[in-house]
User: Fold these one by one.
Assistant:
Number 1:
Amino acid sequence: MGKIGLQLYTVRDSAEANFQKLLTDVGELGYEGVQFAGFYDASAEDVQKTLHKATLRPAGAHVPIDQLQNNLQEVMRYHEAIENHLIICPYLPDSMRENKAGYLQTAELFNQIGKELKEAGFQFGYHNHAFEFDRIEETTGFELLFENTDPELVKMELDCFWATYAGHDPNKIIRDYKTRCISLHLKDIKVENGEKISTEIGTGTLDMNKLIQSGLDHNVEWFIVEQEHFTGDPLVSAKKNVEALKKMI
């Protein structure tokens, strides 16, 4: 059975204002876990205490590539202390994806990082946006990354919104990569003023029930809410999203 988490980038303003209070608030909304996008200078000890009080589990953390390259030992010590064992690279700078050679070099780097993390008891994954689906010669950046990394070392956090935005079927990606996909980012999609934007689950055009079933069929562990566009309070949207997902999972 998959678990429901919230990517805290969704509520970053509240996190910046009072990170510990936000964690408590997210627990009260009914989420089972939180996925981190920074810690706002909070100590690992304080984060762990608050998570336990809020009955929240770590659902992974987005860690910038420069930290993974240059500060991996410290990253591991912090995340071990908060009992988080899923480290996700959330984005690639232009310099690491300019061409096919760049993607292949990045894939090798991912293998190295993934190996070191696995040996220390962690899982490593990559979170896509839309640019990875751009054509590069006869393939795409997405395929270059995942076809040239070891499935045991580099897992997938599939952002279903961005895959759809780029014209791809996230259900097919889940099927194609099977158990390699360990986390799904879920936000619904709608068109507003000619632009595709994210919206609360159940208010857009994505077939969320089908996505959830695809995830469950392939043993996806975490279903992560991540929304980027709002008409009101992001915490209110977070509540609507968890309530909608609980009816599907």
Note: The chain has a mean pLDDT of 97.
Number 2:
Amino acid sequence: MTGTLLYLRARRVPLALAAAVGGAAVIWALYLAFAKDRDATPLVVVLTVVLMVAALAPTLAGPDANLDRTASLRWAWRRGGHLLAGGAIVLAVLLATLHTGARFGPAALVVRDAAGLLGLTALCTSVVGAARSWFLPVGWTSIAAMYPQAGTWGAVATWQGQPTDSRAATVTAAAFALGGLVAYAIAGPARTDPAE
């Protein structure tokens, strides 16, 4: 086996991909079968994005997070590439639906929320570890998407559910995306005790 295949297998990437893509496919099929409108509601789009991100979150650390700090590998580039590949998968799956009978868009909403939520998940991975990194993004997004608030501070607090023309939401998502990418690439997953 090559190093890349071992890396993907150790991080359970095939299982996570199956869960993320399979979950999105189920939501897409249900929307296609039961919805009257071709365009998915923003709430459905945002919750599908967070579902995919949560399914990919455990892959951000291997079985032993402390091994991710060994000097024999250039982990910063590998971790950054891993996070960007996760984002590309979420975008590819959801943007492919724009050419089908049930469209998950607009594209700007998918890009903004995928980037911001992956960044937030990466930040959480650096603080609490990959196993619990999805708690904050899923909880926060569930509330923010259902109850978006008006005004600049409301848009910052509920950026996931804001319209695509909200500058405050876009800046907040970009800050999480960049901050998460840098923190995760440099620091990696949180250190864990061997007993965990």
Note: The chain has a mean pLDDT of 89.
Number 3:
Amino acid sequence: MIASELRAWHSLWLWITRRRHGVPEGATAVPYSREQSTTLMMWLFAMVVETVGVDLLLLSVGVPGWLRYLVLALDVYGVLFAVTFLAACVTRPHVVTDRELRVRFGPYADLRIPIGTISAVRQVRSFDDRIAFGGEKVSVAVSSQTNVVVELAEPVDFVRPLGKPGRAVSVRFFADDPAAAVRSLRAAGAGAALPLVHRLDPGDGDGVPLLDEIGGK
């Protein structure tokens, strides 16, 4: 939890300086924050109003100073938590390189999937999904939505948000532009130099894998 908190504060600095984390030169950033930004901004506005309102109420009824300042500190921390979370979602997008797919959710989730382990990718549309790391089918939803599914030819190990190990054979996640995310993954898969290349289907997104052996037909 402390590590997540530090990553969130670092993200706020990146946001202020207009930089992104973990997006090397030549990589494709896949944002996912657009769908939840409006809700988070409304939530943040309500928290600011609540902070001011509660402080004025406690002042008017004459509560002890230590209690008023304690409540104020907790409310201010809540506001800062919302700001840093929003900053982390903006500055830590999903990333596609020629080596890996990196699926992230703010400062909490970070799955690194080698391109060579991807057997299929397809665009979907689910409105009742959630964030789940408990089984081998990992879901990283935003506002209960996912729109890209990545199937793996072999399990990939990862670290869950609270530090426990996990293993994934299928990953669902949300992208602001799912079509662009799928195209990037297919391009990366087609260029992977492996003895047995799991080429991603160049068709309409049905996720059927094409297996091409180097030097064969």
Note: Residues 55 and 71 are 8 Å apart (CA to CA).
